[in-house]
Request: fold
Amino acid sequence: MTTPRYYVTTPIYYVNAQPHIGHAYTTLACDMLARFKRLDGFDVKFLTGTDEHGQKVATSARAAGIDPQRFTDRVSRNFRDLAEFMACSNDDFIRTTEARHKTSVQALWARLVDAGDIYLGAYAGWYATRDEAFYTESELEKRPDGTYVAKASGAEVEWVEEPSYFFRLSAWQDRLLAFYEANPDFILPKTRRNEVVSFVQGGLQDLSVSRTALDWGISVPGDDAHVVYVWLDALTNYITAVGFPDTDGDYARYWPADVHMVGKDILRFHAVYWPAFLMAAGLRPPRRVFAHGWWTNESQKISKSLGNTIDPIKLIETYGLDQVRYFLLREVPFGNDGDFSHAAMVHRINGDLANDFGNLAQRVLSMIHKNCDKMVPSPGAMTEDDRALLDAAAGAKARMGAAIDVQAFHEALEHLWNVVRAANAYVDRQAPWALRKTDPDRMRTVLYVLAETLRHLAILAQPVMPDSAGRMLDLLAVAEDSRDFACLDAGHALCAGLPLPKPEGVFPRYVDPEAEDA
Ligand code: ME8
Reply:
C-alpha cells in the first residue's frame, strides 16, 4: 500500500513588517493540520515562507535605508524564527528571492506565453501598493479629501500608466466556473465560495502581470524592462517548493496541494488567479483553498497605526505556547472572525486546560500513584459505564479526523473535549476514592479505564499541544514510538503493571501577576 500524501501551505508573508498574531494564526493552524496528518500516517509536506518582491517591500527597504536584499534577509529571518519559536513542524521555508524560485517563475511564465495566454499591452488604471492589487473604478470609494481607496481593504490607490504584459484572465471565466462546479469543496467555507463564484460570474478582466515602474522582482524572460507582477511571482512558490519546473520527484509526489490556507483578504488571488494560471500552464490546480477569518484585538481592528498589533512571541511568553496554540484554534470557529482578549484567553487556560483536562490527569495519576503501587493497575471485568467511556475515547479520532478534513479545527477540539468531559463525569460517578476502602478491585478497574482514556486524549491532543501532550504521555509511560494514531487500537492499550513516573501538573492555572502580588 502506498503512503497517502498531504501537502499544506501557509501564505508566504510579506517582509515589509514584523510578524504579528495574524501570521502566527495561519501558521499554527497549518501546523496543527500537518501534525494531525503525520500522526495519521500521511507523508506530509508543510510549507511556509516569505514573499520578498514587489513595491511594498521595495518601499519598506527604502524607508529603512538599506538595499532590498539585506532588508528581506533580515525580516525573513524574523518569520523563520517565529515558526521555530512556535514549534512549527514545517518541512521547508521558501523565500521568493531564492534561485530555485526565479527558475520556477520564469518557467511558469514561459508556459503561459507558449499557451498564448500572455500578451503585451499597456495598463492604465488604479493600483494599491498595500494590497499589491489592481482595482477597477467600481471597486473604489472616494474619501472626503478626494483620494480613492479600495472598498474591500481600505488601501490607498494610485493611478498607474505603463506598458504591461497581460494574462488573458477574461478567457478563463467559464472554465473557472466549471471548475468550481465540479469541485464544490475547492473553496471553503461555503460562504466564501459563494462570494468568489459571484465575483467570477460578474465577468473577469485581463490581468496585468508585469510592472515596469520597479525593478525589485523577477525579470520577465526576454524582456528585462519588466518584472513579473508580485502575485504571479508569489503564488508560484507553492510549486517551486515541490521542485517545479521539474514535474517528477516531489512535484509528482505532492502536487496538487491539498490545502492552501489563507486569510480571507487574499482569497481572490488564490481561488481565481492561481487556478487560472495553473490551468493555462497545463498544470493541476490545488485541491482546496481555505479562507479563515480575521482577528481583532479587544474588539479593535489590529493595525500598526492603532499601535495594537499583538506580538506572538510576547503572547507565548505570557501565556505559554501550547496555551496560545489551543486558544487560537479553539476560541473561534475556524473560518469566522475572532476577537483576542486577555479575559477569553485566561478563561480557556483555566477552564478548558487547567480545570477540565489538567485536573482530570492530575487526579487520576495521583490516585494511581498513591493507591496502585505507582503502576498501571490491573482491570477486572468491565461494566457498561466503563465500556461507554472507552468507546467514546476510541471513537474520537474518527470524529476529529472528519472535522480536520474540512478544516473545522474548533470542532475537532470540541470532539476531544467531549471525551474529557465524559471522563470527568465518569470519575464523579464512579468515585474511585470511595472505592479504595469498599472495593479496591473495582477502584483499580476504574483507574485503569481512566488511564487508558487519558492515553487516547494525550495522543489526540498532540497536534494542537505537542509539548503538554508529550509530557502527559511521558507520565503514562507511553514509549516515543507508540504515540501515533495507529497506536490508538486495543493492541497498544496500557499494560497492567507498567511503572509510572511521579505525576506532576501539565496544565498550570494562569494567575494574573497583579493578583499574585496582592
Ligand atoms: O498577503 N487575522 O502577505 P501578508 C488573521 N504576501 N490572519 C491574519 C491577520 C489577522 N488580523 N493579519 C494577517 C500577503 N493575517 C501575501 C501572500 S501568498 C502566495 C502571498 C494572515 O504578510 C492571513 O493568513 O499580508 C493573511 O492572509 C496573511 O496573514 C497575509 O499576510
In short: The chain has 19 helices and 18 strands. The chain has a mean pLDDT of 96. The pocket of ME8 is lined by residues 11-14, 22-23, 25-26, 51, 234-235, 237, 262-263, 265-266, 294-295, 302 (CB under 6 Å). The CA atoms of residues 91 and 497 lie 39 Å apart.
